[in-house]
Amino acid sequence: MGSQASVASCNKQKSNYSRVSSRQGSNASKRSQEKAPTKKRYTINDPAKSCFIPERVGERDRSNTQHFALKSLFEGNFFDSIKKYVDFEHHVQILDIGCGSGAWAMDTATEYPTASFIAIDRAAIFPTSIHPANVAFECLDIADVLPYKDNHFDFVHLGSLAFALQSSQWAKVLKEAYRVTKPGGCIQLMEAQLISPGNELVLYSQEKLKSILLQHGQNPYLYENLGAMLSEAGFKIIQEEKRTVVLNNHILADEFMHILSESVDACMPFVMSVDGLESSEEFQAWKSAYLAARRDTSDVTWFGVAARKPTQS
Ligand SMILES: C[S@@+](CC[C@H](N)C(=O)[O-])C[C@H]1O[C@@H](n2cnc3c(N)ncnc32)[C@H](O)[C@@H]1O
């Protein structure tokens, strides 16, 4: 069962942004070659392909660090209510959609060795040779019809896909998740609050981020709509959780500041475009000021929703 797409085909994805000279035309171009340094500006065609570029050096580490920080924040890899319906000790089938580095799947698979996991992503940043025997990684586009039978999985997990999918793709992805979940089986979604509180610098950047996401058909308020999206797909909500890390006063603040810093790097071309930055020096200066403002005046909030497919539809 499932696609046997090669790892090589996984890695064909290209980042969809370009660096262009801010000077246009051949004369300007000649002049710019004479004068150093030439300023560059970034244009973004599609934030879904220019944020969290899976092949970026450091993306695996970011994904792994985030996994363990969230596990600590939410005290586990999934919500307690799911255990009422899914018996993880008895050969259950689990699907992780958009698995990234595979940390969630591998960690949960190690906790439950009799469960079988399939973890899918279009980029092979998951381990291809050494991983728990009860995890199979597959290279798939999650926006397509999934190559799994109806009613197959006891539990489906999706985490941190706000930048990966456009608003219009979510309904199809969740419809597929519903189709492959067993009646009585469960699903869990987890997303970060993208529009964070903070001082003027934070709010200014958040407003720009919001307008760009909207322009590109993405939902800046996805985190508030997880329950509604799951209900729309046919699931019944069983638990909703929201956890906040105040960045200047929380035991996990350093972990989340590190994740934030890596996330800014993971979205560098996007950030440069949003904030009109024209060089790596400007980017570094903006990043330092932004992170200091986040640390002093802001927080990070994550939202999670668990839901169940009705036993009879
Ligand atoms: C921010 S990462 C989240 C990874 C993981 N779920 C986590 O919580 O760490 C988003 C992931 O979605 C994947 N992705 C984006 N669009 C996709 C698509 N259309 N099909 C499959 N994977 C996709 C990316 O390759 C990336 O690994």
Automatic annotation (TrEMBL):
It holds the Pfam family Methyltransf_25. PANTHER family: 2-METHOXY-6-POLYPRENYL-1,4-BENZOQUINOL METHYLASE, MITOCHONDRIAL (PTHR43591:SF24), METHYLTRANSFERASE (PTHR43591). One of its GO terms (molecular function) is methyltransferase activity. The keyword ATP-binding does not apply. Residues 1-30 have a biased composition (Polar residues). GO terms for biological process: methylation. InterPro entries: Methyltransf_25, SAM-dependent_MTases_sf. This is S-adenosyl-L-methionine-dependent methyltransferase.
